[in-house]
Amino acid sequence: MRLLRSGLSITFLLFLAITISCKKDPEPGINCGCNGAPYKHFENVDASHVGSGNYVIFETADTTSRVFAVACDADTTLAKSPKTTSRDYVLTGDLLTPCREFQTMMYQIERMSITTIRKK
Fold first, then answer.
1. Which residues on adjacent β-strands are paired with residue 66?
2. Residue (of 29, 83, 26) closest to 51 by Cα position
3. What DSSP string describes 78-120?
4. For the whole prediction, is pTM greater than 0.90?
5. Are 59 and 41 in contact (CB under 8 A)?
6. What are the record keywords, sorted (predicted)?
């Protein structure tokens, strides 16, 4: 019985220590996403506009390396690309620090700040 009580006490203390050491961000999203710092700059890269400020940014000459990103200030006047593999826009801008609440094991939603955009 005494062994059971000491085991429960240790378990409780361990739980308490873990709970106290894990702190939450006071204001999630304050230093990430559209409010985050740039972590990657891109200059005159090909892109495809898939609508509603969503872009496919092609990092290489082929379509194997690409980033899916959402513009913080979406231009609603831009025409949607006919296919996601179309390279009909040229972008310059920055990818911004991603927010943890938008990440999953499979992907993360990138936010970007576009400084220039032009149609090819």
1. 58
2. 83
3. SPPPSSTT---EEEEEEEEPPPGGGB-SS-B-EEEEEEEEEE-
4. no
5. no
6. Signal
For 21-78, write each residue's pLDDT tens digit. Answer: 444 544 555 788 899 999 999 999 999 999 999 999 998 777 677 889 999 998 889 9
Question: Which tokens is 71 given?
Answer: 């513009």
Question: What is the CB-side half-sphere exposure of residue 117 using CA atoms within 13 A?
Answer: 22
Structure tokens at 72: 């913080």
Counts of helices then strands in the chain (DSSP H, E): 1, 5
Rounded Cα distance between 112 and 114, Å, is: 6
List the chain domain ranges.
Answer: 28-119
Contact partners, residue 57, CB within 8 Å, separation at least 6: 42, 45, 46, 47, 66, 67, 68, 69, 91, 112
Structure tokens at 7: 């085991």
Question: In angstroms, rounded to a whole number, what is the distance separating the alpha carbons of residues 4 and 1?
Answer: 5
- Look-up: residue for tokens 């149609």? 119
